[in-house]
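pasting for the record
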Amino acid sequence: MLTNSPRGTNDILPNSVGDWNYVEGEIRNLCRRFGYQEIRTPIFEHTELFQRGIGEGTDVVDKEMYTFNDRGGRSITLRPENTASAMRAYLQNKLYADSNLVKLFYIGSMFRYDRPQAGRLREFHQFGVEAVGEANPAVDAEVILLAINLLEGLGLKDLELCLNSVGCPKCRGQYRTMLQDFFRDKLDELCEDCQSRFERSPLRILDCKADSDKPYMADAPKITDCLCDECRDHFEGVKKLLTKAGVKYTLDHRLVRGLDYYTRTAFEIKYAPLGAQSTVAGGGRYDGLIEEMGGNPTPSVGFATGIERLLLALEKQGLLPEKNNTTDAYIVALGENAQTEAFKIMMDLRKAGLSVGMDYAGRSMKAQMKQANKAGALCAVILGDDEIAEGVAMLRNMTDSEQNKVPVADLVKEINTVVGLAQLKKFATGTNAQASIEKLAESLKQ
């Protein structure tokens, strides 16, 4: 049916956009404080970018990408994640010339052909950061703290930080062999996907949801037992800095993340009230990714969080801000002449920075007042032939129904007074504060 959006996509309707703007505003403010600058990459890229960057053998590349040939016969893919795109932009635009450490963040749509579920659709939105050019474990710790600061700043509590090191190519070879030796006599018990991963990417077996509850999984070799000296020192450095910052963490030896480009630090932040989909942020280090794309070896670390899942968590806990559906003023025009004059007044009030609406259908005063209430108007500006002749308007305070005749030239000032008092009352707490506002309102009327 043409009236339905494609499965796994959602319209973000006007009554929800405010929630998105709130979260995105918090993100931008936090990134400014941490020194991260926004980047916006194309929604589609050459397919090879993700095949080389994410890694063939991963679920994302093998099963979930939206890939097609364009009219020039080129294989194009809608971005399933943004790290590969950000690294491509870093190389193509020579961002490394600006600073030894380049700190980027992004907010945008990603696409994966997956089973739609709560908090995860086929078109979903991610916020993520990338810190490029520095190998110091302090950058890993900073990225993790940025993620925690965001989630806690939005009001989420009892977060669990899960931490692991997935080593580097130098020490992962030994671990790969140990995993294959461990799983070889269990191949028949593994799911079909894990059987195919056995040769190509045995670490992915640890990340499998279908096999995660098998009893022998707890006995799988730990990669931390195979770390080289450099990786072990780096991991100890990350843990030391997190402890110094007062951040608690849980070591999870089966945490390998779902993408091949990760090296050394891997982490996830979980929020238990979301149940099975409890991971609200995840990331790690990917020191070999830019080299895989043809650049020089460049240490990099980052994370991403799904905005839909984050909004779901905030909604469940009642942490989204109260919706502001008010309009400063609504013009009630009585008669054809008043309609014309009202239109001009509405535009003048809008130029002055006020939010103003009016009725275009020429309905009765009762119907227009009803619409003013529906719009959440703080004031009604009532205009008829008599008011036009006198150069005034009747200004009604919709909160207390008091109305006064006001010269048209003074409407901006008078409406701003009503709006300002309404805002003060909204945020005032306690009997004394309310009484002070009432006293101020009375003095303004005199």
